[in-house]
# Entry
Amino acid sequence: MIDKPRPQALAQVMEISPYVPGHAPTKGSGPSFKLASNENPLGASPAARQAVIDVSANLETYPDGSARALREAIAQRYGLDANRIICGAGSDEIFQMLAKAYLETGDEIIQTTHGFLVYHLVAQQSGAVTVIAPETQLRTDVDAILERVTAKTKMVFIANPNNPTGTYISFEDVRRLHAGLPSNVLLVLDAAYAEYVRANDYSSGIELVSEFENVIMTRTFSKIYGLAALRLGWGYAPMHVIDALHRVRGPFNVSETAQRAGIAAIQDQTFIETSLALNDAQRERLTDGLEDLGLAPVPSVANFVLVNFPESLGKTASDAAKYLDAHGVSVRAMAAYKLPDCLRISVGNAESVDAVLSHLADFLKTS
# Structure
């Protein structure tokens, strides 16, 4: 039989290591807790759940391609211009739109050492090169980023707060970063965890977008709003950026179910405040408990805690993850983020925090 040529994917695509999401724990006889994906332990707002039920009566109808009602709800919540908002299937899709609209082979993006993996993936899809800027004490280093800007730089991605470190930089530092960038470089501010931050010197970046032509801020409904299953995110940007993104956006990229649930969720401030209060209390318990066990958690402003397992303990992060999984608790290993000695643990409810601390205490006692 004669071998025939077959379709070949682009070289840069075949170099991509697919993103691996957090996994559910191994099922055991007792309760289990998925703490690997930074999901809201309270689930979603009752109003959002009812919206999903209501949509089921009209599943034959296409959604509004522009997500007009959702954009207006977001605009009303934050005092924005709805025309400068774009919605996507999670903020991940907005990153993909940015890559399609602005990156080509030979271009460069900059991200930090432990920045979100998806930035690198979308750059690879377009044949662009990812330049890594080192962090300082697991925090975005503005000077390190600016030192790496070249004529090839097209975008700078920072997650603020950062995933997986849980750290943030002040709005003053974000402004300094922007001020040091050429006007043709797009600054992408990924504010997926912004709702959790209580610090007075923090801002998600809305002000910068309103003031300048080369900034976009992205947000998600997957975390505080508990709508991860529906895949919903949004971005706020100058009109010329929004225009470009609409030209590469799929015509019906956000389902009607996601749009209706998003509207209900963003209007349910009581649910948001309840979620925040739970996260504040349990994050403190988790952090203090990890310290009491002799571990080294990184102070976090998000809904997860990164914890280091010192070599001196003789217990590796990988071993701890396997032990927890065998006892019904899944957490996120961090080797892919160049943090092989760390685990990222989502902040859950009181029962899940108790389970993590109890199982880790047993793990550290075993020979």
